[in-house]
Specification:
Elements: H1 7-25, E1 31-37, E2 40-49, E3 52-60, H2 63-69, H3 72-77, H4 79-95, H5 103-115, E4 123-125, H6 127-137, H7 143-146, E5 151-155, H8 158-163, H9 172-178, E6 181-183, E7 194-197, E8 203-209, E9 216-219, E10 224-229, H10 232-236, E11 240-244, E12 250-254, H11 257-270, H12 278-297, H13 299-310, H14 314-324, H15 328-335
Length: 337
């Protein structure tokens, strides 16, 4: 049975997320300007810095973002009160037993957020993203599920990185260097996509979707290279904002939970170590946990993600099917949608 946090705790989390999203607007220095690129509408903060015209990416056009623009003056007036509210909400979440992010990953996420990694399309994936679904979905996770991972994975679309015509305020490599991470050599001597902590075993990796041949690609907006992987486009196509509980909260971006669950079925079958490896077992465990909750709480979204994935071709169906053959309860829940 799924164990849930109280309604009060989940409401506190959603309120904290709204306040952190509002805080992003306080960084706007000029006038929000609509820009259409290849049929898509984006918003940019345009302002002059000396004789130079600066254009900083704000986000993709949505009704919610346009509504927030109307409240910028009010948000500035309420800045101090909102800071106190965030502190209070964090206390509520800790009292409710929500899992927080450790100091090392928390400081790293905060530095990435400050430099613009998530604003420019970076999406947190992997186990750290999975742990954030506790607050996003209001679920209670076990100690094993919340145990600190040694990896931090961030994915982004190469095409989006090119289209945005913007870049982080501080280079990702610079942020990692300041935090005692060294680049890990790759087969391509001029491209770096992984960094390892010099004092621990923590690994930071950057990934991007592949559409056929896998290899290394550049992400100009983030100033790094990334390992291209097939099936990753399904995972990060429509990410959502989420909060990592560190200090007053860090606003990041994670995949939709239904996409994460179905993608883990694929990943479990792709593991080089084999489908009976510990990593594959962990993939299936995370997928099963989310499928159990979403089948009850968000069945339409889960059904849509599942039908989308199996409709993408025989290889997709085969990989998902092989994982589900080891997960009879999850298979039954998906079949019943």
């Amino acid at each position: 049975m799924i164990d849930r946090h109280s309604h009060i705790g989940h409401s506190a989390y959603l309120d904290l997320k709204r306040k952190l999203q509002d805080d992003r607007l306080l960084e706007i220095k000029g006038s929000p300007t609509r820009v259409t690129v290849k049929g898509k509408v984006f918003w940019y903060d345009k302002y002059r810095l000396g004789t130079r015209l600066v254009q900083k990416y704000i986000g993709e056009d949505t009704a919610e973002l346009r509504e927030r623009f109307q409240q910028i003056d009010l948000l500035k007036q309420q800045e101090k009160a909102r800071a106190a509210d965030k502190t209070r909400l964090i206390r509520v979440l800790r009292a409710e037993g929500y899992g927080s992010v450790g100091a090392q990953f928390g400081s790293l996420l905060a530095a990435f957020a400050k430099s613009g990694v998530f604003r420019l399309g970076g999406t947190l994936i992997g186990t750290l993203a999975f742990q954030l679904y506790e607050a996003e979905l209001g679920l209670r996770m076990s100690f094993d599920q919340l145990a600190q991972t040694d990896d931090l994975d961030i994915a982004s679309f190469e095409r989006l990185s090119l289209v945005l015509a913007d870049e982080t305020t501080e280079s990702v490599a610079g942020v990692l260097s300041e935090m005692s991470f060294d680049p890990v050599p790759s087969l391509d001597p001029i491209r770096t996509w992984r960094w390892r902590d010099t004092t621990r075993e923590t690994l930071v990796e950057f990934l991007t979707p592949a559409f056929g041949e896998e290899g290394l690609r550049d992400l100009p907006a983030l100033g790094v290279s990334a390992q291209a992987l097939n099936y990753l486009n399904f995972l990060i196509a429509d990410p959502i904002p989420a909060v990592a509980l560190y200090r007053s909260g860090v606003l990041v971006q994670i995949p939709r939970p239904e996409a994460y669950a179905i993608h883990k079925l694929i990943v479990a079958d792709r593991r080089r170590e084999g489908t009976d490896s510990l990593k594959s077992h962990k993939d299936r465990s995370q997928a099963a946990f989310l499928i159990e909750d979403l089948a009850e709480d968000r069945p339409d979204e889960l059904a849509e993600a599942y039908e989308d994935a199996i409709g993408r071709g025989p290889k997709w169906r085969e990989r998902i099917g092989r994982s589900l053959s080891k997960m009879p309860e999850s298979a039954s829940r998906l079949a019943a949608l």
